[in-house]
Specification:
This protein is α/β, with parallel strands linked by helices and 421 residues long. It has 2 domains: 283 residues, Crotonobetainyl-coa:carnitine coa-transferase, domain 1 (Rossmann fold, 3-Layer(aba) Sandwich); 72 residues, formyl-coa transferase, domain 3 (2-Layer Sandwich), CATH 3.30.1540.10. 41% of the residues lie in helices and 14% in strands. The protein is built from 19 helices and 13 strands. The strands form 4 sheets. Strands 5-2-1-6-7-8 form a 6-stranded parallel sheet, sandwiched between helices. Helix 2 links the parallel strand 1 and strand 2. The two termini are 47 Å apart. The N terminus and C terminus are likely disordered.
Length: 421
């Protein structure tokens, strides 16, 4: 088979990057579950354990339609749902028996919870030495904050991120979206893959301690080293950035907004020539980056004035022709129609048995020979795959299911219908 034919065959029937990898997701909310979602996007078989009846909190988090949590449909995609009440000794024993079926386990209970449930990760590793366990909490497994409840919001606050976000005449700004949680999800997925690579070399598993605030802290690392070395303490600057100018959001004649960033000297000079010709590019106030930062208010006024005279598409066409870094500032509705987003299929439609077609993010990044878009949305019913998965993994027959159900392993009596068991 020739190389071209081989590539064509792979593009038709791709072999997923993580095919054969199995992940048990015990976590709830966003940060830790996202790590599992990403691994599932890349081909892992991810099984989600949910509390019987209520399920993952994200099922009830934010907007709903037809009794379904909309964000859950994206965050829970690709995962089969098993209902287990881990407060019950019978469910704990079942999970210990089940753990060797997996390469990795993801959890985000408060420190000490798994230990109280007789599911200490160290004991799980003694039982299955090749197992990788990701433990995700707001503040980590040790330190004075270890037992505090926390979410990404507190991580954004404690890391220093919120203190430098917003405008100087207003209070610190917490993001209106789960920024720290998403950062932690990506970091958690990366950490699991790093541990699995090491396992292939050594045969040894790993316990990973991921603190969400540390994932958020990485976003302001440049300010950490600057403060350490120069004593500089940054404050909110709106749409500006303290490292380069011009940079910001500018409104055009038609009311639409564009974003512009001139982080290198060459691009800054191109922007200056576009808005004011060679004379402005040679103006001593704007000759170097330090000069531009010293006169940032004047420079912003010039850029804003130029943009305000043109409709956005015309302004972007001029910037593009001059090889400047500028682009449209979209909202969700306009982003969905952006030609770049459409051309790359960055957003795809996935069929859901209750809601029909749902648009959500595609699988990122794109793998040349092993790309597959999401196939299923988050399970509509808590535990709808319980018997299917446990029957296959543990060879549990109907009689044992009935016995375990009577003992409450899958939830209180009468929970079978809601749990799908």
């Amino acid at each position: 088979m020739g190389a071209a034919a081989e590539l064509k065959e792979l593009s038709v029937a791709p072999q997923a990057m993580l095919a054969g990898l199995r992940v048990l997701d015990l976590s709830t909310m966003i940060a830790a579950p996202l790590a599992g979602t990403l691994l599932g996007d890349w081909g892992a078989d991810v099984v989600k354990v949910e509390q019987p009846g209520e399920g993952d909190h994200v099922r009830r988090f934010g907007a709903q339609r037809l009794g379904q949590g909309l964000y859950w449909k994206a965050l829970g995609r690709g995962k089969r749902s098993v209902a287990l009440d881990l407060h019950r000794p019978e469910a704990q024993a079942l999970l210990r028996r089940w753990a060797p079926s997996f390469d990795a386990i993801i959890e985000n209970f408060r420190p000490g919870t798994l230990e109280r449930w007789n599911l200490d990760p160290k004991a799980l590793l003694e039982q299955t030495p090749r197992l990788v366990v990701l433990r995700t909490t707001a503040f980590g497994q040790d330190g004075p904050y270890r037992n505090r409840p926390g979410f990404g919001t507190l991580a954004e606050a404690m890391s220093g991120l919120a203190a430098v976000t917003g405008f100087p005449d207003r209070p610190p700004l917490l993001p209106a979206y789960p920024l720290a949680d998403v950062l932690a999800g990506y970091l958690g997925a990366s950490a699991i893959l790093a541990a699995l690579i090491r396992r292939e070399r050594t045969g040894a598993g790993e316990i990973i301690d991921l603190a969400i605030y540390e994932a958020a802290l990485k976003t302001i690392e440049s300010q950490v080293v600057e403060y350490d070395q120069n004593g500089t303490l940054h404050s909110p600057q709106g749409n500006r950035i303290g490292d380069s100018a011009p940079r910001g959001a500018y409104q055009c004649a038609d009311g639409k907004w564009l974003a512009l960033s001139a982080s290198t000297q060459s691009i800054a000079e191109r922007v200056l020539r576009v808005i004011g010709g060679e004379a402005l590019a040679r103006d001593p106030r704007f000759r170097t980056n330090l000069d531009r930062l010293a006169h940032i208010a004047e420079l912003d006024e010039l850029v804003a004035g130029w943009c305000a005279r043109l409709p956005r598409e015309d302004a972007l066409a001029v910037f593009d022709a001059a090889n400047c870094a500028a682009g449209p500032l979209e909202n969700v509705a306009t982003m969905l129609d952006n030609p770049q987003v459409v051309a790359r299929e960055s957003i795809v439609s996935v069929d859901d048995p209750v809601l029909g077609s749902i648009r959500m993010s595609n699988v990122y990044p794109r793998f040349t020979s092993a790309h597959a878009p999401p196939q299923t949305t988050g399970a509509s019913r808590v535990g709808e795959h319980t018997r299917e998965v446990l029957g296959a993994d543990l060879d549990i027959d109907a009689a044992e299911f009935d016995r375990l159900e009577a003992l409450g392993a899958f939830g209180p009596s009468g929970a079978r219908a809601s749990a799908g068991a």
